Amino acid sequence: xxxxxxxxxxxLCACSNNAQAPLTAADIVxxxxxxxxxxxxxxxxxxxxxxxPIVITDVRSPQYARVEIHETxxxxxxxxxxxxxxxxxxxxxxxxxxxxxxxxxxxxxxAEDIRGVELQLFSDDVLLMRxxxxxxx
Amino acid sequence: xxxxxxxxxxxxxPDPVPTAATVLPQPMPLPNFELVSSAGQRVGPEAFRGRWxxxxxxxxxxxxxxxxxxxxxxAAHRRLADAQHRxxxxxxxxxxxxxxxTPDTVADYVSHFGSxxxxxxxxxxxxxxxxxxxGIYFQKVDTGNGGYTVDHSxxxxxxxxxxxxxxxxxxxxxxxxxAREIPLIQAAG
Lengths: 137, 189
Description:
The complex is a heterodimer. By secondary structure, chain A is mostly beta strands. Chain A is built from one helix and eleven strands. Chain A has one helix spanning 2-14; strands spanning 23-31, 40-48, 54-56, 58-60, 64-75, 78-84, 87-89, 94-96, 102-109, 116-123, 126-136. The longest helix of chain A is centred in the N-terminal third of the chain and has 13 residues, at 2-14. The model of chain A is unreliable at 1-18 (pLDDT under 50). Chain B has five helices and ten strands. In chain B, the strands form two sheets. An eight-stranded mixed beta sheet of chain B has the order 1-10-9-4-5-6-2-3. Chain B has a two-stranded antiparallel ribbon with strand order 7-8. Chain B is globular and about 70 Å long. The interface between A and B is medium-sized, with 22 and 27 residues.
């Protein structure tokens, strides 16, 4: 089962650069909430055009030692942030990573004053997609 | 005729009241507490007398809710200033992360949201003295990798010039709502 999933994801990865790619990214924003803070946050709209769910199990970046998937929940006027182990994008749907919701935390930069970032989306160690973005603020 | 109807309507219509914010039927004086401003000065309840304050509790490592709320508050403040509204409230950020948020850390943080933002931090017991009285929740939560986050109330409190907890904005927050309702709260207060 896991092998089949990896094969499928390999196929997804192989064709992710063309217009028919099953996984596409849009509305990419990578920002430092406060300019003097090293930590950055990333928001992306991920669309799955395939007929199978796509599960992102890891996100890496050459510019940051750690990238974590987080979710901010507001319940009864209390803000709670929790770390997620994966992101699932159902077939034919768009998952929006956005403020006050699911987002990526970019932690421990490997250099000072990072202006651009590459995000690598993995599923079970298979690279699905690379996303390049400018870091704002 | 039309002018008469308009004037009559304006005279008879009830004054607009806040619909998003909750105004306390009986404003509550702040308790005694002693915290520290981002300038390193002692801050007690007297620091909240003589002006309107919009108070948000958060922490500087907070990735989105805290900066987002402060951005919305400063945008509303700008909107009120542009409309020549007086008195303009002050924005106050109180850290609920005393381990990491020193006065210097808070000073750097609030400086990114405008010059009229007061940053406050303090020890855990002193923070609890204030937050428990105001019904503000915060709790340190382990994130499992040696780090931690802080769950916290996401409300904005309105403190009146008598130093009393006067009203509260629940989340989610909205610039237009702040800009519309803050003058209504002030007018009724």
